[in-house]
Amino acid sequence: MPEIVVALRSSIIEDSPALGSLHRDAWRNAYRGIIPGVALERMLARRGAAWWEHMHRQGRSVLVVDLSGEPAGYAMLGPARGAKSGVGEIYELYMRPDCQGIGLGRRLFEASWQRLQEAGCSSLVVWALIENTIACRFYSAMGGTEGGRAHALVGGRRLEKISFRWT
To answer: Which of 99, 104, 155, 166 would you label with 6, given CA atoms 20 to 30 Å apart?
Structure first.
């Protein structure tokens, strides 16, 4: 039986095709039945391998949980949008559907929060759609408390979102 190696690392341009597939599969899994189908597919079409290659060519990367050489999940993070200095945000944290529920998301979340703290952030915010119950349960289990609610119009549908906060 081959050894499975788990690592956390910054993405590289060679990850772009895998990240495009991971993003597509994770979003379909998370948002099917929540975001109207046509709108979801349009969003996914914009985030294929070429989008990830462009991101890397601009000198940016994402934090990847690597499973034996392949991205199994990723997190985009940085300063919180619209917040005061010292607040970090995980903009996106997604796992391949076949890698959910085995602790890799927890490792990715903890590493993301640690990176933000090392960058000077003393608190963290993450937004999730209320109807994405898996994400809401995950962030609650990670110790997040409700910080507020808002709405987003996606594909002609008004969706409620919730912020989770850590200090």
So the answer is: 166
Q: Do the strands 145-154 and 123-129 form a parallel or antiparallel pair, or are they unpaired?
A: unpaired
Distance CA 147, CA 84 (A): 15
Between CA 43 and CA 155 the distance in angstroms is: 10
Beta strands in 62-166 (DSSP E): 63-67, 70-79, 87-95, 123-129, 145-154, 157-166
Number of neighbours of residue 40 by Cβ within 10 angstroms = 20
User: What does each C-alpha distance from 97 to 27, 85, 132, 153, 163 come to in angstroms?
Assistant: 9, 34, 14, 26, 23
Please answer whether residues 76 and 92 qualify as being in contact, where contact means their C-beta atoms are separated by less than 8 angstroms: yes
CATH number at residue 96: 3.40.630.30
Residue 14 domain flag: yes
Q: Which of 105, 104, 103, 123 is nearest to 113 (CA)?
A: 123
0.85 exceeded by the pTM? yes
pLDDT in tens, 45-69: 999 999 999 999 999 999 999 998 8
Give the domain range for residue 133. Answer: 6-166
